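Hey team,

Filing this mostly as a record. A colleague (T.K.) asked me to run one chain through the structure pipeline before their review meeting, and I want the input and output archived in the tracker in case anyone asks later how it was produced. No errors, nothing strange. Just documentation.

Input sequence:
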Amino acid sequence: MEQQFKKVGTLQPGRFWPLLALPLLLLKPAESRAQQGPPRTSKGRELAPVPLSTGDSLRVSLELEPDSLVAEPQLPAAIDSARLEWLRTPPTLRDLVCDRIGCFETDVPHTFNNSVMAYVTLFTARNRAYMQRVLEREQFYFPIFEKYLAQYNLPIDLKYLAVVESALIPTAKSHVGATGLWQFMGPTAGDLRLRRDEWVDERMHPEKATEAACKHLRYLYGVFHDWELVLAAYNWGAGNVQRTMRRTGKKNFWDMYPHMPAETRNYVPTFTAIMYSMKYAHAHGLHSEQLKYQVAEELDTLGLRGQAFDLRRLSRACGYDDSTYLTRYNPELFRASLPTGYRPYVVRYPASARLHLGDVDRATLLEYCQPVAALPALMQPRLVRLEGVEPFPSQQLLAATAGPRAETEEPTPRFRRVQHSVRRGETLATVAEKFDVSPAQLRRWNELPKGRPLKPGRKLLVFVPLPALAEPAKGSAVAVAAAPAVPTALRPTVSAEDAAARQALAAANAREAARMAELVEQEKKQAARLESIRQRQEVQQRAATAKAAAEARAAQLAARTRQAAEEKAARPPALAAAKAEEEPTTTEAEPAPAVVASKGRRPAPVAAEPAAKELPAPAPETAAPGVYVVRKGDYLTKLARENGVSVSQLVSWNHLDSETVVPGQKLLLQAPATEPTTAEPASIAAKVPVAAPVAAKAEKVASAQAGKAALKTHLVQPGDTLYNISRRFRVSVAELRRLNNLASDEVKLGQKLLVPQG
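Output structure:
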């Protein structure tokens, strides 16, 4: 037995290691299960651990309720309505709408996506009544839109933009104040020259508002060059779109889609959906016989120029039972009427109504369309009377009592405003001397820079000083005020205060009459002073004219003397000897033969004496003294400057109708001498007395030249007319036309006119 115990108690080393490894193998699955965590259900909830029994192989799972203080709240997910509608739409309908929109041949936005499909379903299925109301007015307004869109070279499909804005209701008004078919705000309408007042709002005018919208869309396209961004800017504003583009760096509408407000995000999809719905209205069964379609008609107009007008009476005159029928053609009128004195306005009505008007003329129709009752006017404000507070002074109160007007009288004017037009040659000093003021005052009144000359034609404002008025004698007013009232002349109802007020008013009237008489006297003195100045200027002008005439006469005599000397030097010796023997005393007195030139004819020499017929032929015509043959490049001003004469003298001597000359034309460069009369050889001695008439004729020519020398050239300035020039130089219009050979009263800028000096 002990031996057996010894065998059991003593273990071998090889059998000891498996006994130690057995607990390790049993603990390893338990650790792995602990790392995996507790078991969970399909919903993610933990299962309670259940002890394993040695005799049962089944496991019981129990779900534990979550702790409300520990569990996180689960929020409902946001629902995308466009995506939901996309999922509800049958795929065949989506593909059909996508194909139809993709086939649009237009430049306006026609991108198809789930947002567009949601609005297509809205307009064609869920809200069909809205689209049917739009279809009723389609043919009434779309011709107007198409006309102006074609005029401004814009896509015709932009006409659907008015449907998005106002549903084709011209009087539509949004919650922010946008009004009309195109929903213009007030500042934008002002920029586009749409007038607004208490009677008319042109934002509701179909044609004017459409033209303004075309201008605005053309401007926006010039800024963005993308029609999707243009529509977004039309709704949100160009400045907001540009700021978003700079902030995000995006250049496309769909890239900027998340950064825009909800209204602008839905604007472009709504436009595409409405364009599709109206193009395929028949395919979706939107048209019906019960709809009341409006058709565009040919319109006639009636112009108003300040007359009071009632549109309801015009509707009755045109034969319509509804007195408000014509308001659909004139929706911009607030009250269907216009007051007297309103600005020019045009009323539209159907041309088919002419049959009802018949042969009624315009005056009769306007008289019939006058309002039956006066238009409402503003009521006079009624002041609240408070105890212990004096009321505001009225005209009646001021007239009956010695109010503020009696204490502070209107100051007497010390200056009179005169507008002076600067003439050629006038300076600041001469104008100041003319009106008896200083040059510094003129510069201050007209803001003239110092040292700069005046330009002819400029308007100067001059305050002509008036002499001080003599104050009316105070004794007269006191006498009037102190005059005793006659008891018999006063009515019993007139109180003493009223009588005193009337007497003070009479005294004030007397003072005013004396002041007005003094003003009239001062005006007369001023007119007399100006008349004396004018007479002095006329005397100076006559002196200048006489001086010019004397100078012209002296020049004429010098020219005649020089011509006689040249002829005497050029005369053949034989003829000179014969003349000296026959007429030794009369040779110098006779005028030299001259050549008279006239326009269109060759100059013919004056008949010579019989004694000259036997002599050889004279020199050629080109060698004749005082005659010049025009060469290429010559003109009248150049010839006048080279020969020391004026252009008017050359025109007068050669009887020219204008200042144009042609090569080969012969001109007299000196004053023509008087033609000697042809006489017999026996009467040569009798030519001596002819010197007196020759001198008289020369004096007459000299006076005519002096009269022409008294003229001067005026250059037509901007704004000048023949009437203004005639008033400026104190000459009649007919005289100006005669001096300048004018066929009408029209003058051109830069044209030169002959006018009298002074």
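Quick notes for T.K.: The longest strand covers residues 415-421. The chain is about 45% helix and 5% strand.
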